[in-house]
Amino acid sequence: MTAVLEISGLRKTYRGRKGVRNALDGFDMVVEAGQVHGFLGPNGSGKTTTLRTLLGLIKPNDGRMAILGREVPRHLPAVAREVGAIVESPQFFGNFTAETTLSLLADAGGVNRNRVHSVLDLVGLRDRSKERVKTYSLGMKQRLAVASALLKEPKLLILDEPANGLDPGGIREMRTLMRTLSESGMTVLLSSHILGEIQLICDSVTIISAGRRVTSGSVSSVLAQHTSGGVRVRLEPGVDLVGAAQLLRAAGAQVNLEKDHFTVGNASNPAQITKLLAERQIYVSELSPVAADLEEVFLELTGTAPVAGHSRQVDETVMSAGKGGWGQ
Amino acid sequence: MSLARAESRRLVKRRLTKVIVIGVLLVLAAVVAGSWFSSEKVGAAQVAAAKAEADRNYQEALRSAAADKEKCLAAQGTPEASQWPADCNQLFTPTIEDYNYEWYMPATFVLREEFPLMVAVFALVLAAAAFLVGASFVGAEWNSGGMMNLLLWRPQRLRVLGTKLAVFLGWVTVLALVLGAAWTGLFRLLAEYRGSTENMTSGVWQSFGLTGLRGLAVILAAGALGFALASLGRHTGMALGALVAFGALDIGAYIMASLAGLSFPDLWFVPYWLIALLTKEFVTTDWTSCDYSSTAGCEPATFTMTWQTASIGLAAVTVLIVGASMLTMRKRDIT
């Protein structure tokens, strides 16, 4: 596979009155052609800074970036025609209609204005296209932003939180749209906090924390790397759950008791569980591996899982422990 | 070329542009209408009426002077004498020269004399409009995020900002030339029907043309300054705030220069520079000085600011601020 997007060693430093902050600290990312690639990270981790830097809105301090095999920002004017992007919240001049907004962008980018109606139709704004953008809801503005990114039929589509403000139907439509675009050969880089969506849509992911990549790869491989090897055990109704758990604990198992089942964390040989329980006439009704989901992996890798009695600050992550943040 | 076309469409489609252009048309129409209704064609009848009025006033003044002299003479030797001069012949006696008939003529628009002022009015109205539209054109783009969107499509910052400015100034030039031609035509008609077109030589028209060009320079500079200030602050309000702040500072500098006893405090007041630019020159006088000559005695010193000096000042300020806006466009992150 060829890489549509390559970033290596990207650095961006902000200097403020409170000191120096490394928004990006040697960040790396590779997005392969034809994939839907999820770009995840906690608030303030550097996702939007990465996208803005990639699109020439922010000047990096160091690092290398390439889109479609061409170095950016040097060749950005040449590749911009191939890249559709929305960055952060959708922003448009409110007094223009959606149709005018897109036709002005089409003119500026040298795109045929006839495309305007087809992309408005694609994102479901056809019937509202002659209304002023300031009358739109956040979800409608989001749809318009996606339409603007699709206007030039890009090879690489960069979407920053495209599901923001969308209703459940809209989120599902967006998911289908991403898939359709990917199947048509378009590469999609998708930044989102809706991890369930990312897991459903994306082929691969990169997770960023405190300006650095913490993991990347196909969704399945990332999940596999962080699957605990535990199993979920459910017994026949009426059987003493606590007694069975104590029996396994006595045999050295790490058992977490839940309401109607328990999990065994270090179940390298699940057959041992059924054997031990069966010897005491306790029969298992369900024995299934506990699969990690992307949310758990994300929280674990970024260290942003909520802790009871502790208010986590935005720059507080595993990567930033003891460093990062203002005043370094 | 496609970017220029898009920016041209964007400018023309903006509501504020339309509102301000309509506002400009209304103000200019009001000036023309006011001049029309306050002017009157002068002919033999008006001259005769003015002469009669002047003579009537002169005769009235003579009668009043004679009555005063009689009262003065009657008061001699009485307590009221103190209210009159000791010599009643010293009382003012009007002469026919004090009642020039021209002062009794109705207002009439003399094209040769009064059109330069109208060019200045035209230039100042359009300059104010250009400043506002220029500031809003780019300020609203920055503020709404439209500029960022545009840069995602055309990641060439200087080209984008430069094209926007060029398109805007191009439209301002077209509007100024079209309205300027209409303005000249209307006042030509006004002078024809409600005033005078006497002594309109080709040299006078040439002079009007040059005044118009200086006016156009003021309009373009105002537009460029509004645009550049709003771009520097990435908000329309920045341009308006800078204008208000500069106005306050300028008035402060003028007052301080006057209080400090500087020779020509008027030079610290920028509107006088504009007057110099639009009316060819501005002469300021230092009333505290004395240029003595045996023939004329003590004459106060004067300083003449020419339109050339004022042009250099305006051009320098414009280049500086537009340059700063381009530099920050190139350097600053867009967040």
Output the keywords.
heterodimer; A: 328 residues; alpha/beta; Rossmann fold; Alpha-Beta Plaits; 2 domains; six-stranded mixed β-sheet; four-stranded antiparallel β-sheet; elongated; B: 335 residues; mainly alpha; two-stranded antiparallel sheet; 71% helix
Can you put this structure into words, describing what you see?
The complex is a heterodimer of chains A (328) and B (335). Chain A is α/β, with parallel strands linked by helices and 328 residues long. Chain A folds into two domains: 3-225, P-loop containing nucleotide triphosphate hydrolases (Rossmann fold, 3-Layer(aba) Sandwich); 231-289, Alpha-Beta Plaits (2-Layer Sandwich). Chain A has helices spanning 47-54, 76-79, 98-109, 115-122, 138-150, 168-183, 195-201, 219-225, 241-250, 271-279, 294-302, and strands at 3-16, 19-32, 36-40, 62-67, 70-72, 83-86, 156-160, 187-191, 204-209, 212-218, 231-235, 255-257, 262-264, 284-289. In chain A, the strands form three sheets. A six-stranded mixed β-sheet of chain A has the order 6-7-8-3-9-10, with helices on both faces. Chain A has a four-stranded antiparallel β-sheet with strand order 2-1-4-5, with helices on one face. In chain A, strands 12-13-11-14 form a four-stranded antiparallel β-sheet, covered by helices on one side. In chain A, a hairpin with a 2-residue loop joins strand 9 and strand 10 (212-218). The longest helix of chain A is centred in the middle third of the chain and has 16 residues, at 168-183. Chain B has ten helices and four strands; from the N terminus they run αααβαααβαααββα. The two termini of chain B are 27 Å apart. The interface between A and B is medium-sized, with 30 and 28 residues.
